Amino acid sequence: LAPLELQKDEAEDAQSEQEETFRSPPLEDSELNINHPYYDVARHGIIQLAGDDNSGRKVITFSCCRMPPSHQLNHTRLLEYLKYTLDQYVENDYTVVYFHYGLKSLNKPSLKWLQTAYKEFDRKYKKNLKALYVVHPTNFIKILWNIFKPLISHKFGKKITYLNCLSDLREHLKYDQLNIPQEVIRHDENLRGKQKGKLPPVVKVPPPRPPLPTQQFGVSLQYIKDKNKGELIPPVMKETVSYLKRKGLQVEGLFRRSASIQTIKDVQKLYNQGKSVNFDDYHDIHIPAELPQPLLTFECYDHILGITSVESSLRVTRCKQIIQGLPEHNYVVLKYLICFLHMVSQESIYNRMTASSLACVFGLNLIWPSKGTASLSALVPLNLFTELLIDFYMTIFNSRTVPGEILP
Questions:
Q1: Where are the stretches annotated Disordered (predicted)?
Q2: Which is the most buried residue in 20, 52, 159, 378, by most CB within 10 A?
């Protein structure tokens, strides 16, 4: 039965290929350097970083419609590039969104390649993958599931969610960060247009409420300072760092696991209402903080991306130059945070969190572009910059002091 269904699927692919002569060109990525080790694959934009899900986990997207015909893409290299990308995240919880639309007979990998790919992704890749969303599944996906079912553990199978339309993603992810291919959006619109009955009514979103005087999340550093008698360090940061210094410095894997979304919401609500928080009540060592703008201002972004082109012996000096240009308040809060992360890295023999590991967790939380999200090619310089800040904290932050600043 499966071979017959696959033949039917192939026939449908062939028909759609005749109907659709348009194929999008490789995605232009201004940050992608021709010297990238996987430039031949990366230039197509098949695999992309796409912000965070609703639990604060990094999201990786895989778009089949961006895969060129098989004779133009080395699938072995594609697998290597996928592993190369995930290697930057597998130490932390992460999510994958797979856009199936656009996988056709011309660009479809062989079943043997798929089997090899699944075997290549050993426990280190599967353990911290918390969710795999398959968007617009077809008969081919259902058949594959039956073929690979004997190989797939029950635990891994529970991580897979099939979504028939893009709107279903809003329940799980920060949808606006996804950078969904236009072909997938058009396909989704066509599917909805074919559905019987009327589309669900558009829900009117009420205007945002003004922040509370005690608000700690989703507001600017200046707002927090003004509402906290001029204190430079946000109260939630001081309290979190103080708690982690007392109870978390030697906890193995500190910061690698994200807290549950409900725990984060509960803690944020208490802080925003000006109420006290006892972290012991939550039995969770990692509660993240949020700011609407990065500590390292948008103006720093391009300077940081250039760090890899600087001679290695001069990189610490360049880091120092970049942060010296920060506004006073941003500088003080960044110094406070990096000082604490430096303490964490000094206990890496116990917590396994070296400066490099911490940089992978915090790099994208310190800086991001003013529009959209950072691309995969930006990860190396962003993480390198953050690692240097942590490793060489004393050297980089020793020449600028601000009245009223405190350290952990």
A1: 1-27
A2: 378
